[in-house]
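Appendix B. Raw example, untouched.
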Amino acid sequence: MRWRVFFGLQVLVVGLIAGAAVFVAQMHDDHVVIAKKPPQSIGQWYKPENKRQVWLHTMFRLRREVVAIETYALAEDSPNLNKWAGMLDKDYQKIASMVPEWAPRLDLDTLAAVQNAAGEGRYKEVIAALGKLNDTCRSCHADFRTVTAALYRAPDFSGMKVADGKPLNEHMAALSRHVNHIKIAIDDGRDGDAMTAFSNLKTGLDELGGTCVKCHNKLGQKIYPDPTLSGAIAKLEESLRTGNLKSKGRSLGMVAVLACAQCHGTHRLAFDAKVLYSQDKTWRRLLQHRF
């Protein structure tokens, strides 16, 4: 009788959890995106913990080895085929020691089939087995590649500061306000206020460039504002002083694209994804947000 009660409680608990999951998903309808996070052990193979980016180089070698094996199998070049098959075997099996949690995902039987077919000169079977092995690679990439890249390859701007010691996020928000103040002043015919906001924007962009150069260091060349952006800034200043409403708007739009959107397309998207995937997603947190 006690066992029946025990198992009954287990079924009840499982049912409640499943019901809660369905309830939360239904409440959010189609606004929930589920992503798998990689094991934390993979972090040791990325910067800054690993200066050589061992994980990336292992993946690059695997891709090169697959291409080489396919090439030499089609050419029926046994010596080179077996050379690269041996390299593939070594690098593929490294995954289990680098990220032990992923060891069960490895298809060692198919890997052995590639080795055996290569060793016996069964070239068509090499191609078939290699295709099957590729499927396991694609499966893992589909689950983890995007999240892993966001977590470990996107730069972290959270602790950065500009020349005056202001946190980078506050400085960026101020730059955005300067751009909007210029636009508002242009539309409302307040030329003096537009020039004041422009002066603040120009100074802020120069200060931001002092932060950018810490990563983008090209033999003393100023990476930001670069000559193209500097030219657009000079044109905006001239338009604000002598241009008509249309030319002022166009010049401001060009500066906004070159100074903001161009870099945000790379850095902001990557950093926002990094922050998003780093957050602890719990059912309680999900329940707090209704759509």
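End of appendix B.
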